[in-house]
User: Fold this.
Amino acid sequence: MTRTINEWLETSFDRASDYALVTGASSGIGLEYLKALAALGCPCIATSENADELSLECALLRKSGAPQIVEIVSDLSTAEGVENLVAGIEGFHVAILVNNAGVGMKGGFIDHDPGRYAALVGLNSVAPTLICRHVLPGMIDKRQGLVVHVASINAITPIAYNAVYTASKAYLLYYAYAVAYELRDTPLVFQIVLPGTTDTPFHRRQGAAPQALFMAPDVVVKRSLQRIDRLLCVSNRFDRVLLPLVSALPLWTRTALGTYLLKRRLKFKDDSKDKATEDESRDLFVTGHPREMKP
Ligand SMILES: NC(=O)c1ccc[n+]([C@@H]2O[C@H](COP(=O)([O-])OP(=O)(O)OC[C@H]3O[C@@H](n4cnc5c(N)ncnc54)[C@H](OP(=O)(O)O)[C@@H]3O)[C@@H](O)[C@H]2O)c1
Assistant:
């Protein structure tokens, strides 16, 4: 049965008392969720780290007739930031949670400062877990709720030069899947979105730019909200075809393919990465881990 966000809102959301909480609402995919939910008349709580961008976007939405939007500025990569958000939503009933805030970090594993990895895992993996843990009891009590986790197509395979980001999204995919299974006998709706390359500031923040097979963020959100009954929402049609094929490959080959595709989809400012692309395209013809192949 097709279930759109409109159908769900009719039966499961009270616009007089319920709220939609969107993390990372100041730009890209999160901003498109905020716009879409506000356009559907949902009071929203919008959160991001950067106060200026967030208040600018919320002001524009209010001007265009959006219902109530509460702004909360918080650095969700830290435990204190998550606590600050949790304190800020005290007294609001969150009926929709869009766990979207995230950052990437491309480059060789040993090239980045370890503290940045802790912040990335904090934002991409720990914060969505804790926020979800905080709002779920209220949803379970009311027997209504929609939880959308924005993971990534990268979650389906390890990817070199993107190791920690990919692992943080694999965590989110597995954790969110397991919780959805635990609560399968409740009326709560869960969705895990796996966007492919999407044209947002996300890549610029990492010194890269989308160059092939990329999507607009509003299309990612449209595909998610038009079928909220889909537990797994693979945003890009090309990725939908690729997913079952990739999943059948040995992990080593999958890693080489994922690394090769990432390089093809993005243009890095640093040209030295081209050498790595050549190596990975050669690796695609290796069918298993070299050590596994020895007799
Ligand atoms: N773009 C892609 O190709 C792509 C593909 C697959 C998955 N995704 C996932 O989609 C989600 C949204 O990404 P996007 O492409 O829309 O990127 P984006 O435009 O860079 O948006 C990221 C959002 O996260 C917020 N954020 C960043 N660091 C934060 C922090 N420490 N605390 C709180 N909020 C923070 C940003 O707010 P500030 O502006 O305040 O920092 C911004 O609102 C991410 O989880 C990303 O991993 C993106």
Strands lie at 18-23, 44-48, 69-73, 93-99, 146-150, 189-194, 208-210, 232-234, 266-268.
